[in-house]
Design a protein that fits this description.
DNA-binding, Arc Repressor Mutant, subunit A, repeat, transcription, Plant_SW-associated_TFs, mainly alpha, disordered C terminus, about 325 residues
Length: about 325
DNA sequence: AATACGGGCAACCGCCCGGTG
DNA sequence: CCACCGGGCGGTTGCCCGTAT
C-alpha cells in the first residue's frame, strides 16, 4: 500500500490541463476519487480506461482506474474473509491452474484475482509450508530426506473446514506436475462435495441454496451488470446456466439485518467502517434471494476415469476446466 | 510505554497480447 | 509486416496495523 500523494489538492488544480500525463497521481485513492470513478462507471459504463480516467476528472492513468474499479469499487465484489469453501475451491483450482489468478477468480464469484493472489501468498502458502514441515517426521526432518513425491506427502493435508484429506496441495504450480498428478487420480475432483449426499455449501441432499448474481444499489431492486453497450445496468438480469438461470453460491452466511446502505464510505480501509460500507452493499446484494436449484448430471470423475483423454503433451486447460466449472461446480456457471 | 517485527493487502511495475492503422 | 496503443495479468513493493518483546 502506498500513501496518497500529498499534493492531492494540487493535482485537483490541474484538472483542466489535458496534457498532464506527467502529473498523474499514484498511491492510495481518496474518497473523492472513488466517488468520481464509481459514479462515472455506474452512469457511463466501462469503456476505454484512459477515457474513463479523463472523463471522470481523475488525475490517474487508465490502468490505475481499471485496477481500482476491478479490485475495490465493483458493486458485485464480496468483501470479508474467505469462507472455508472458498479456500477449498481456491486450493483446488490452484492445483489445476497454477498461478492463473484471473482464471481462478473467474470461478469465485465476487472475488478478484488480486484478492485471491494475496490470500494465497499470505495465508494458504504459509499454511501449506507449515503443513509440509509439520508433516515431516521428526526422525527425518533433515532436508535431504524430503520426499521425492511431495504431492503424495501433501495429499491428505490441509483441507480447511473439512476432513476430506484427499486433495493434493501444491507449492509448485508447474502444470506438468499438476497434470501428472491429476492423471494419477490423486485428488478428489469434488473435494467440497459430499459425494454420497451431494452436500453443497448452504444446502444438502442434492439441492443447495444459491444466491443469484444480482446486485442492488441503494435499495433499488433488480440485477445489475454491464450490458452489451458496456453501461452498468440495474434491473433486468440475465439468466444463464443451470436450468437457465444464473446463480452464485451462497458461500458465506450474509447478514440480512443491516440494510442501511451508506452512500459515503469512510475512507480508511484499515477501519472497519469502510469495510462495512462494502459489506452493506453485499448484504443488500445477497439478500432477498434464496433460490433452490436442482443439481443434476454432475459429471464427477468422468474425465479422470478416462486417462487416455489426457497425456502429458496434450494437456488442455479448457478441457480440464470443464470438470471444474459447469460439471463439478454448477453454481459457478454464470461466470463462464 | 516504547520499540521491533511480521502479516495483510492495496497499488504499482513490467511484460505480454491482441487490435488497429 | 511493423509500430503503436490499450488492456490484462502475474509478480512485487511498501505501508499500516496488530502483536510480541
Amino acid at each position: 500500500m502506498r500513501k496518497p500523494e500529498p499534493s492531492a489538492a494540487a493535482a485537483k488544480s490541474n484538472n483542466n490541463n489535458s496534457n498532464n500525463t506527467s502529473k498523474l497521481r499514484k498511491g492510495l485513492w481518496s474518497p473523492e476519487e472513488d466517488d468520481k470513478l464509481m459514479s462515472y462507471m455506474i452512469n457511463n459504463g466501462q469503456g476505454c480506461w484512459s477515457d474513463v480516467a479523463r472523463n471522470a476528472g481523475l488525475q490517474r492513468c487508465g490502468k490505475s482506474c481499471r485496477l481500482r474499479w476491478i479490485n475495490y469499487l465493483r458493486p458485485d465484489l464480496k468483501r470479508g474473509a474467505f469462507s472455508p469453501q472458498e479456500e477449498e475451491l481456491i486450493i483446488h483450482l490452484h492445483s489445476l491452474l497454477g498461478n492463473r489468478w484471473s482464471q481462478i477468480a473467474a470461478r469465485l464469484p465476487g472475488r478478484t484475482d488480486n484478492e485471491i493472489k494475496n490470500f494465497w501468498n499470505s495465508t494458504i502458502k504459509k499454511r501449506l509450508k507449515n503443513l509440509s514441515s509439520s508433516n515431516a517426521s521428526p526422525n527425518t526432518s533433515d532436508s535431504s530426506s524430503e520426499p521425492k513425491d511431495h504431492h503424495a506427502m501433501l495429499a491428505g493435508g490441509f483441507i480447511p473446514g473439512q476432513e476430506h484429506g484427499m486433495m493434493p496441495l501444491y507449492m509448485d504450480s508447474s502444470p506438468s506436475l499438476m497434470q501428472s498428478t491429476v492423471l494419477n487420480h490423486m485428488f478428489d475432483p469434488l473435494p467440497m462435495l459430499d459425494h454420497a449426499g451431494l452436500t453443497l455449501p448452504g444446502g444438502a441432499g442434492g439441492y443447495y441454496n444459491a444466491t443469484p448474481c444480482t446486485t442492488q444499489i441503494n435499495g433499488v431492486g433488480g440485477d445489475c451488470c454491464f450490458g452489451d453497450n458496456g453501461v452498468f445496468e440495474v434491473g433486468g438480469g440475465v439468466d444463464i446456466g443451470v436450468e437457465g438461470e444464473i446463480f452464485v453460491p451462497a458461500l458465506e452466511c450474509v447478514s440480512t439485518e443491516n440494510q442501511n446502505l451508506k452512500t459515503e464510505p469512510i475512507y480508511d480501509h484499515r477501519n472497519t467502517t469502510h469495510n462495512n460500507y462494502y459489506n452493506n452493499i453485499n448484504s443488500i446484494t445477497n439478500t432477498n434471494y434464496n433460490n433452490n436449484i436442482k443439481v443434476e448430471n454432475i459429471g464427477v470423475g468422468n474425465y479422470y476415469d478416462d486417462q487416455e483423454e489426457l497425456t502429458m503433451g496434450e494437456w488442455d486447460l479448457e478441457d480440464l476446466m470443464k470438470d471444474v466449472s459447469s460439471a463439478s461446480f454448477p453454481f459457478l456457471d454464470y461466470q463462464s
